[in-house]
Amino acid sequence: MASIEREKPLKPSLRTPPAAAITAIKLLVFLLCLLPALQLLLGWQADTLGANPVETITHASGTWTLRLLLITLAVTPLRRLTGLHWLLRLRRMLGLFAFAWGLAHFATYLWLDQFFDWAAIAADILKRPFITVGFAALVLMLPLALTSNRLAVRRLGGRRWQALHRSTYAIAILGVVHFWWLVKADVLEPAIYALVLAALLGMRAWWRELERRRQLAAAVPQARGNGRVVRIVPK
Amino acid sequence: MLIKRPADISPSEITPRSLFEQRRHFLVGAGGALAGAALWAALPRSGQAASRLPAYAPSPFSTSEEKTPLKAVTTYNNFYEFGTDKSDPAENAGKMSVQPWTVRVEGLAGKPRTFGIEELLQLAPLEERIYRLRCVEGWSMVIPWVGLPLAALLKQVEPLGSAKYVEFVTHYDPAIMLRRPVLSWPYVEGLRLDEAQHPLTLLALGLYGDVLPNQNGAPVRLVVPWKYGFKSAKSIVAIRLVEKQPRTSWNRAAADEYGFYSNVNPEVAHPRWSQATERRIGELRKRPTLMFNGYGEQVAGLYQGMDLKANY
Asked: Which of A46, B245, B265, B283 sees the fewest Cβ atoms within 10 Å?
């Protein structure tokens, strides 16, 4: 996900770390996103994933998908709250890792859980709502992963690209619903994810509302009387 | 044709493990004779639950399938009072004190009474029953329980003709257990009286030849092998003979998902997942789930003429 705006040059600081520091941070984040996979792989080999290792892998991969989705969605609010605009440069990688973990989650289900029993898999996707929404979330992530390069931004144009990538909100909601619907009785954990997601989306809605009011206030003198609809596209 | 090996040592002759283990104190303690005298004085004569199981006989009801390793049986548990993760009960159930322990058998009974664990152990010859256990979540184990038929206990209290169901109430101590109302506490389960009296229905006091570990429902639990695992209530404190179908905890939580009967049935899906297959713990590929968990020959008669889709 390419940066659309260019930042004004400032003194090198936490707000504008040198390029080498950003590269190092990117590398670190990359390794951190891979670390749980390494843990699962080693755990599988050493047989330390508990009595039901397939379940452990399914849960871990699903949890990391959801966490990375929320972390990806946290980039914009964090930038806005802290002024650390370079955080944006981590967002594409975080989003792609969310997708990769989602794929790993789905692959675990297809392979280790169902052993490619296509009839059972099709029945699950069609008949089990929690699997339906989980699958929908994964399918919706695919176009985002495919358009996560600069070329796609240029081809689509910034505005259309951004509109497409707003489906991340829907994906995250589907992900939390998927989690909520699969637990038997204890919704504490999915409720925590739901709260975090609500906060991340709530902040956006609030800022959008502020922006709308600001634009409205600015647009009132011209808009009044001519009945034209003022199109509002917040940044 | 029940094969019963006579117990060659009576339960009362066996040293309770807690005392057995106290020998260590004896050995390390200074002034051995004095300590020994004190220990002797502290020996309980009766009324205390035994920590070691008396001798038990094999059962023709046992399966010859490969047993699930003890480690898996004792670290992968659903015992929500101690936490809802599978590993929580093994971590937290140690806080529960199971001595002394009594089970009240009450309700519509001619001779209601309270039993200590020692009494339960001597009520009937103990048997080892190696049963399949199928969890409603889609996994299964093969577990060697030690216990006695629940029927033997019920016989003692002489159920009245008006008794139609049996309700099992389990231990709940908010000081050491989950306080969030994930389920309605105390955990309650129930069976129809004829199900409870069925020879397969076991009151288990042991596992793998030893007393039940706390996370598996110490000191006494139910094992109903043809029903989903949650029907087999753990750490039972009361057994009530009642006229009306008991309101069980899981049924209260989600009646459309956890019916009163909850017989293992590959043809009736849980609303959120299929029950056609299961993963035997320790195996990678799933295997087909058997009707009544493979105990149809013994129990299908209980449900003659019943629509098992409606009475899930």
From this structure: A46
- Closest approach of chain B CAs to the CA of A98, in angstroms? 24
- Chain-centroid distance, C-alpha A58: 19
Does residue A88 form part of some domain?
yes
Angstrom distances, CA of residue A95 to CA of A6, A62, A151, B86: 21, 14, 17, 31
B107 and B140, same domain (yes or no): yes
Tally the domains of chain B: 2
**How far is the alpha carbon of A52 from chain B, nearest alpha carbon, in Å?**
6
The answer on B104 and B22 residing in a single domain is no
Type of residue numbered B142: V
Do the Cβ atoms of B86 and A50 come within 8 Å?
Answer: yes
Per-residue pLDDT tens digits of chain A, which is 235 residues long:
445 555 555 556 777 889 999 999 999 999 999 999 999 999 999 999 999 999 999 999 999 999 999 999 999 999 999 999 999 999 999 999 999 999 999 999 999 999 999 999 999 999 999 999 999 999 999 999 999 999 999 999 999 999 999 999 999 999 999 999 999 999 999 999 999 999 999 999 999 999 999 999 987 665 555 556 656 666 5
Q: If 0-12 CB within 10 Å is exposed, 13-18 middle and 19+ buried, where does residue A51 land?
A: buried
Examine the domain organization and report whether B140 and B198 are in the same domain.
yes
B135 is in an annotated binding site: yes
Whether B206 and B254 share a structural domain: yes
**B172 has binding-site annotation:** no
| Sign of the dihedral defined by the CA atoms of residues B192, B193, B199, B204, in that order | positive
Say if the Cβ atoms of A128 and B273 lie within 8 Å. Answer: yes
Interface contact B272-A112, CB threshold 8 A: no
The stretches of B129-271 forming alpha helices (DSSP H) are 150-157, 193-196, 249-253
Q: Are A121 and A110 in contact (CB under 8 A)?
A: yes
The tally of domains found in chain A comes to 1
Interchain pair B274, A124: CB under 8 A:
yes
B281 vs A52: CB contact, 8 Å cut-off? yes
Q: Which residues of chain B does A114 touch, with a Cβ-Cβ cutoff of 8 Å?
A: 286
- Tell me the nearest-neighbour CA distance from B298 into chain A, angstroms: 30
In this structure, are B159 and B292 located in the same domain?
yes
* Closest CB from A52, A114, A181 relative to B272: A181
ipTM score here?
0.82
Residue A2 lies in a domain: no
- Residue B70: inside a domain, yes or no? yes
Structural domain of residue B25, as residue ranges?
A: 12-45
- CATH of residue B92: 3.90.420.10
